[in-house]
Amino acid sequence: MSQKLVYAKGSCIMDLYSELTAKYQTVPAIATEIINLEAILNLPKPTEAFMSDIHGEYNAFQHVLRNGSGNVKSKIRSCFRDEMTETTLQRFAFLVYYPSERLAAIHQELQGDDLQQWYLTTFRRLIRLLAFTATKYTRSKVRKAMAPEFVYITEELLYNDADTPDKLAYYWQIIRNLIVLEQADEWIEATCRTIQRLTVDHFHIVGDIYDRGPAPDQVVESLIKRDQRHSVDIQWGNHDILWIGGAAGSALCIANLVRISARYNNLSILEDVYGINLRHLARLAEQYYQDNPAFSPKMGRSDRPITEAERLQITQIHQAIAMIQFKLEGPAIKRRPEFEMDHRLLLDKLAADFSTIQLNGHTYPITNGCFATVDPADPYRLLPEEQEVIDSLVESFTHSEKLHRHMDFLMDRGSMYLRYNRNLLLHGCVPVDEDGNFIGLTIEGTTYTGRQLFDMLEANLRLAYSQPTEKADLATDLLWYLWTGPNSPLFGKHDMTTFERYFIKDPATHAEGRNAYYHLRKDPDFIKKILREFVLDPEVGHVINGHTPVKKGTDPIMANNKMIVIDGGFSKPYQKTTGIGGYTLLDNSYGMQLVTHQPFTTKADAIANLTDIISTRRVVETEARRRTVAETDIGTALQAEVEVLKRRLAELRNGD
Ligand SMILES: O=P(O)(O)OC[C@H]1O[C@](O)(COP(=O)(O)O)[C@@H](O)[C@@H]1O
Ligand SMILES: [Mn+2]
């Protein structure tokens, strides 16, 4: 895709010319390709879905992937209009979402003739639904979405009309044979997956796959599977950066993510999934830390409650790694004055007996302090055993094969922002001052703001990732800045008050202060300014953000529909704030809709009770007429190909 966009800008037009002339050498071959491409340009624009802030909630995420962000059910509704009762529709929808689980239940419920009848009805319905979802695509694209072993049979069923008397017997014979040859369940499963795939063509993940929830690794695995035809992109979130930073050897990113994993009782992701050895850390934790209410893990993993001994051990680990994090912050802040983070130097503001801290002219009492490893004379110095722990963690992170496979995917499909089909996608914000002027970072005499800030940070992130052995260079330190720096586009707040939240009661010290972007983004003129900065058409573009959970009663659609925030709370701990289970934004040929999902309980519950989490849909924008492929980025690239082919055709006709 990105290669095609380069063509669209015309910079590689000669490459395109040589590529296409080599591929299509005769007049009929060129003419056929022109006909094919121009036909594609007239097809309706495929559906894009946008999600963000999944935060490891794999089951809820999977449900949304399977139900095509609510789109599967609306397709069924349109396709079968008045033919199905609500219960039949619901059952059929769940078969499409969870075919293997529903088939197992059907085998329990039905036998003999009832089962045969169920197969015959279901086959017919699935074929009709597949045909309905496939109308937007070329035959070749539909074929690629099918399981290879069933392509022949499925195409026969799909493109032959069973209502034609001549074909009727042929059609039913295929179906009967699938049943007799015991391939019926396999075909149903494969076809349901094809329907899922065709319902949403492209997924945008607007950041924060990682942290808090139980299975971010499985989210990444399913995105890798889904991406076979480059149909996924990711705009990195601040939490994703911690994990990319971990693989890139940043001790600060590692300390932060291990701390969050302990806080949310997710250490098993590190040990069991990514093979990170936590033995040294556990030993240090046991030696220096006791029970401490401020560090008790927030919630248990849903699969099993934790024992008291486990809770105590996690609480100790949580303190040990938090303290390593605070100690590592000191030298980083000091070696990077350009980050302007001196106000985050906190350990040196503690009284010698650790009972109080001096902040901004106030003295605050310390509660739940755990400073046994801190030397008041040199508070940022790591004890040799702490140094050993962090070194061994860095070693484990930089050598975890699975982590690298997942982070390679995040690097490959991810970026700091994306311009896609006239919209700008980014996780956090574009940092600005109160007057809306772009602000950023000054590095080695150059000030980076707006789009340049994003590009500079991305270039450094890629550099740091390619050099995991460099551990305290600017590029690696910038990874940490992306997580917590005051002008980081992914953080968007002035301070990350982790220390204050653990140790100071006064809530005034917990405020993090959002960048002015977050109130200015309600203004359409401000959004237009942002779109212009990123070289997008301010009149037709939208900005799509994640990162800030949309509070109950607050509108996620702002600035005359130009600004849409889609963090609706897939993350369970944030559902109290949002009151819902998450949003997905859909952009199809008719316009944009926001889908609201209700909180997802468990997969077993959803399947047993056929509870779907989709609720309302709200039209963000309706196109005056259906948009076609021609009006998309891919369409622009295809048009460039058509022009080149037409030129070549004229040359051949002139005897060149
Ligand atoms: O909810 P927790 O675990 O206390 O984390 C709070 C921290 O997470 C942050 O909100 C960042 O995470 P998000 O990107 O999910 O908002 C910080 O601003 C804040 O300090
Ligand atoms: Mn975020």
TrEMBL record:
InterPro entries: FBPtase_class3 (IPR009164), Metallo-depent_PP-like (IPR029052). The keyword Iron does not apply. One of its GO terms (biological process) is gluconeogenesis. Its EC number is 3.1.3.11. Keywords: Carbohydrate metabolism, Hydrolase, Manganese. Pathway: Carbohydrate biosynthesis; gluconeogenesis. It holds the Pfam family FBPase_2. It catalyses: beta-D-fructose 1,6-bisphosphate + H2O = beta-D-fructose 6-phosphate + phosphate. GO terms for molecular function: fructose 1,6-bisphosphate 1-phosphatase activity. It is an enzyme of class 3 (hydrolase). Its cofactor is Mn(2+). Belongs to the FBPase class 3 family. This is Fructose-1,6-bisphosphatase class 3. The gene is fbp.
